[in-house]
């Protein structure tokens, strides 16, 4: 049974291959953890879960969205707008509602994205994304006989998982290290990536290496699509907050001794300029990156969550 401490350890170690399973496990861990029965104690426990997860996560917006929904629940309960005889059961119902919403969004993204793919197209992708995998699954179900190119995505070689999952769909994959993007991407009809956050001005926060992939697509005239549901739109960027950086331990890159005058930089995610993005595939349809800000709803943010995020982002390098 997954408990919150184990989940937080996995989040800290960047052990998840995409935000879909990250949120699924977060919901499961919180549901397994809650023990209190008195309303006040339940709300204290929930806020403790939020603080524990926030302390170890990168700016992965679906997870931030989950934490925000949890804080909204505690605030509504405090002022009496959350009417329920059993707050513990109501919280468990909220978690399950969020789980089902995410699954429905991924299903819709899969259908929208697969319509972009024609029979016998070659597609390319980078890193691991549940939304991109859903697009490819739909294409296979529709009998489109596609092929794919995928890449190593270091550190931690996350791309090997992508290779395995795409191959299991029966899609032949040409696989190479990140440095072969310019060699393997040409000939693709389109490139798909997932995303962890999208700013109000359309910049896409994704696995390091995705920016290079976008530049390669621009060079060779290949459409570059981002598969992301609207929970990945960062409303705090609309309020002027920068997206937090994601520095990781140098040991993930190499176990070699590094000269004292030198350093190893390991950043998990980077920002892709909106001008390099052809379109964003959401549960609401295919949209321009420049439409993201118009679809945001900052008023849905919990006031206490905003304060927590202010502190969370205070001591960080700014990406934008």
Automatic annotation (TrEMBL):
<dbReference type="InterPro" id="IPR037171">
    <property type="entry name" value="NagB/RpiA_transferase-like"/>
</dbReference>
<dbReference type="GO" id="GO:0046523">
    <property type="term" value="F:S-methyl-5-thioribose-1-phosphate isomerase activity"/>
</dbReference>
<comment type="similarity">
    <text>Belongs to the eIF-2B alpha/beta/delta subunits family. MtnA subfamily.</text>
</comment>
<dbReference type="InterPro" id="IPR000649">
    <property type="entry name" value="IF-2B-related"/>
</dbReference>
<dbReference type="InterPro" id="IPR042529">
    <property type="entry name" value="IF_2B-like_C"/>
</dbReference>
<dbReference type="InterPro" id="IPR027363">
    <property type="entry name" value="M1Pi_N"/>
</dbReference>
<dbReference type="Pfam" id="PF01008">
    <property type="entry name" value="IF-2B"/>
</dbReference>
<protein>
    <submittedName>
        <fullName>Uncharacterized protein</fullName>
    </submittedName>
</protein>
<dbReference type="GO" id="GO:0019509">
    <property type="term" value="P:L-methionine salvage from methylthioadenosine"/>
</dbReference>
């Amino acid at each position: 049974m997954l408990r919150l401490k184990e989940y937080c350890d996995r989040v800290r170690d960047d052990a998840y291959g995409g935000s879909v399973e990250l949120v699924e496990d977060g919901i499961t861990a919180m549901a397994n953890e809650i023990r209190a029965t008195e309303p006040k104690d339940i709300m204290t426990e929930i806020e403790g879960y939020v603080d524990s997860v926030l302390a170890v996560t990168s700016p992965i917006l679906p997870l931030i969205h989950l934490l925000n929904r949890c804080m909204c629940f505690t605030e509504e309960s405090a002022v009496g707008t959350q009417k329920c005889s059993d707050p513990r059961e109501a919280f468990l119902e909220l978690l399950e509602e969020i789980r089902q919403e995410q699954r429905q969004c991924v299903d819709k993204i899969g259908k929208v994205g697969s319509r972009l793919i024609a029979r016998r197209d070659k597609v390319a992708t980078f890193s691991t994304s549940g939304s991109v995998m859903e697009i490819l699954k739909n294409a296979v179900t529709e009998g489109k006989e596609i092929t794919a190119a995928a890449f190593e995505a270091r550190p931690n070689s996350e791309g090997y998982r992508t290779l395995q999952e795409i191959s299991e769909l029966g899609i032949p994959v040409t696989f190479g290290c990140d440095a072969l993007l310019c060699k393997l991407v040409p000939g693709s009809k389109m490139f798909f990536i997932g995303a962890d956050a999208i700013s109000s001005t359309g910049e896409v926060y994704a696995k390091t290496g995705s920016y290079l992939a976008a530049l390669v697509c621009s060079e060779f005239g290949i459409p570059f699509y981002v598969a992301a549901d609207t929970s990945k739109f960062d409303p705090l960027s609309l309020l002027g907050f920068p997206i937090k950086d994601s520095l990781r331990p140098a040991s993930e890159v190499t176990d070699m001794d590094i000269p004292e005058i030198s350093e190893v930089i390991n950043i998990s995610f980077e920002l892709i300029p909106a001008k390099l993005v052809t379109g964003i595939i959401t549960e609401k349809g295919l949209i321009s990156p420049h439409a993201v800000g118009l679809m945001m709803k900052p008023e849905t943010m919990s006031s206490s969550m905003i304060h927590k995020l202010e502190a969370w982002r205070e001591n960080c390098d700014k990406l934008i």
